[in-house]
Structures are given as C-alpha cells and as structure tokens.
Amino acid sequence: MSDDTESSALPVSWDEAREALIVVLLICAVLRMLGPLSGFIDERWGVFSDDLAELTRNASPTTGLMVIGAAVLVATTPQVDLVPSLRTATVVIAWVVTLQAGAAILLDLWRVSGTGVLGRLEPIFGRSLPALLLAGTGRWLASRVVPFDD
Q1: Are 36 and 54 in contact, with CB atoms under 8 Å apart?
Q2: φ, ψ (nearest 5 deg) of residue 13
Q3: How far apart are CA 78 and CA 109, in angstroms?
Q4: Domain with 28 in it
Q5: CA distances from 88 to 22, 92, 128, 143 (A)
Q6: Helix crossing, 84-110 with 48-55: angle to 10°?
Q7: Nearest by Cα to 74 from 11, 136, 15, 149
Q8: What distance in Å separates the CA atoms of residue 68 and residue 145, rounded to the nearest whole number?
C-alpha cells in the first residue's frame, strides 16, 4: 500500500517551514519558563527568595537550546524572507531567559544552604549558567547578526 496522503499534500517552502519552526521553538521556551508560575500562583505567597527560586527554576540548558535554535534560524534567514516580529520576539524572549538565568545564578549564590561553595556551584554549572550563555548568545544572534551581508 502506498501512502497517498504524503504524495498528495502540497509542498511547503523552506521559508514558511523555517518561520513555523521559529514560532514553535519560541512558544516552547515561553511555556517552559511559565511552568513554575502556575505552582507559584497556586501556593500563593511564601518566602520571597523561595518564590524567586521557583520562578527561575526552568532557566535551564533545555530552554537555552530552544532560544538559540530559534535565534540561529532568525540569524541565517535573509531579512527580506523573515517576518520582522519574529526577530523581535526572539530577541525579547532571549532577553527574558537571560535575565531569569542571571537571577537564578544570583539566587543560588546568595541563598542560605547547608552545602559549601561547591554545592552551590553545582546547580549553577548544570542549569543556570548554560541557560545564560545559550540565551545570551541567542539574543546576540537574533539582534546583531545579519545574514549574507544584507
């Protein structure tokens, strides 16, 4: 049996597919960052530093990869082929993830814990710092890199 649904479907240009991929990656990054917000709202208010730590919990390498993936697509797309709001949205979301990752690093360094310095650095090296580097690089790519010498 042959699969007629694939052969009868209209082809999609790479320009349209690229924009769809950018939108999906950005939505995934935003949803991942908003996930802890529902728990924060559900529990109402607690200790301020714990609340901030909860809100920045998903500033992680996974979120950073989503942002830099969208930014690479934005940076490699000629400006005439890209909806301007996609570039702006990528820059804004990358800024938010970068700021949340930076806040997570500061919280991990300043929170009182029973562990020493290395115990505090573990979540920073494994979660917040890669997110900061990836999202920061994504922000730079989306805002500064112009493909093909436009």
Answers
A1: yes
A2: -70, 155
A3: 41
A4: 14-144
A5: 12, 6, 24, 8
A6: 140
A7: 15
A8: 13
Q: What is the pLDDT of residues 72-111, one digit of tens each?
A: 999 888 888 888 899 999 999 999 999 989 988 888 888 7
Domain presence at residue 4: no
pLDDT of res. 47: 63
In angstroms, the Cα distances linking 123 to 28, 53, 55, 139 are 22, 12, 15, 23
In the chain, the number of structural domains is: 1
The verdict on residue 63 lying in a domain is yes
| 48 in a structural domain | yes
- Domain annotation covers residue 3: no
In whole angstroms, give the CA distance from residue 88 to residue 86.
Answer: 5
In the DSSP assignment, the letter for residue 147 is G
Span 2-46, pLDDT tens digits: 555 556 677 778 878 888 899 999 998 888 877 776 666 656 555
Q: Residue 71 corresponds to which amino acid?
A: A
